[in-house]
Amino acid sequence: SPSQGYYTRRGGVGESGDFITSPEISQVFGELIGIWYISEWMAMGKPSTFQLVELGPGRGTLTEDILRVFKQLSSVLSKCDVSVHLVEVSPKLSEIQAAMLTGGKVQQNPEDESAYMKGISKTGIPIFWYRDIQDVPPGYSFYLAHEFFDALPIHKFQRTDKGWREVLVDIDPEVPEQLRFVLSPSRTPATQNFIQPEETRDHVEVCPEAGVIVQRLASRIERDGGAALLADYGHDGTKTDTFRGFRNHKLHDVLSAPGTADLTADVDFSYLRKMAQGKTATLGPIKQREFLKNMGIDLRLQVLLQNSSDTATREQLLHSYDMLMNPEKMGDCFNFFALLPHHRLVHPDKKDKPEAKSPLPPVAGFNELLLK
Ligand code: SAH
């Protein structure tokens, strides 16, 4: 909701807010993602320009860490024209991002742009803000969505003796101002449109908005080139009832005090893969701890430990590594998933002359290739 929604009103990412995310836990997370983009940029033949497009940038920390890597590797990127495009609906978070990335020097509603705000990063890269991915100009782009898709609204469905029924929200007639879940008495348009015919689960959550956004990303990548890296709580079409709320880092009843708590549902990557509709290839989902290991997190940790002399910093580094990698913490429940042009994984003319081409470089992070 533009007026009463959680992100437009509150949006408490970070230690002082309602939930904490990986980039807020450790700088290493964003650094490794920055390296992923450079690695893909090189594998795709170093195009002369690219846009980094982030959906739901939170406090801007992830972009900040990525831009630091771009700066450190500026000799590699020297001839490349890079710009940053942030898709953000929250006025409060966009202000926090602007302060973090530009030091607050931004221009509101620039006349000649589809963006609602623009500025220049501390490292000299132009940054633009939009409310919708469709406002981002076309062009070769690397997309990033970290803990974005889990924030989008879902439909819930329950299998019953009479067939699929939608789980709806109703006002409890017995208790004023109390919401409750009810089953639709008959089929709804959503039950007809969003349940896959081959579905075997008894309870299903579908996020059509995520499907539409993935279709847009896939079309843009197919047309203009680039890649998308999506990371989120999620599963590959196996989980059922995952809808939950967080407030002040504690579980919160999803129906109580709407708009004041972060509402989240695990991302169904099998649904996103279907929505890419063959326009791009997909890789993953792969567990966060495997992706980060493949990206070299252990080596990066060793370097940071060697460079830090005080015990508190070393302890903090080890603690944040454990948060990101421990299977009981974020290591197993977070997944990475990528959309890539088909030619990035298979030579277009492979069928005709398989021996004529050198092998394509593997996609970093997805080493144990989960090609689907
Ligand atoms: N990626 C960040 C923040 C995740 S929280 C991190 O990992 O720390 C979700 C983000 O998505 C917030 O920035 C929120 O304001 C934004 N958001 C939520 N719904 C959105 C929508 N419909 N369109 C664009 N951004 C949205």
In short:
With 372 residues, the chain is of the alpha/beta class.
CATH domain fold name of the largest domain: Rossmann fold
Enumerate how many helices there are, as a single number: 13
H/E series, N to C? Answer: HHHEHHEHEEEEEEEHEHEEEEEHEHHHEH
Total strands: the figure is 17
User: What is the number of independent domains?
Assistant: 2
Strand content: 15-25%
Radius of gyration: 21 Å
| Global morphology | globular
Name of the CATH class of the largest domain: Alpha Beta
* Largest sheet, strands/sense/barrel: 10 strands, mixed
- Model regions low in confidence, pLDDT < 50 over at least 5 residues: none
The whole-number mean of residue pLDDT values reads 93
Distance between the termini: 36 Å
Query: Structural class of the helices, strands and pairings?
Result: alpha/beta
Tell me which CATH architecture of the largest domain applies here. Answer: 3-Layer(aba) Sandwich
Ions, cofactors and other ligands present here are: S-adenosyl-L-homocysteine
InterPro entries: NDUFAF7, NDUFAF7_sf, SAM-dependent_MTases_sf
Catalytic activity: L-arginyl-[protein] + 2 S-adenosyl-L-methionine = N(omega),N(omega)'-dimethyl-L-arginyl-[protein] + 2 S-adenosyl-L-homocysteine + 2 H(+)
GO molecular function: protein-arginine omega-N symmetric methyltransferase activity
Keywords: Methyltransferase, Mitochondrion, Transferase, Transit peptide
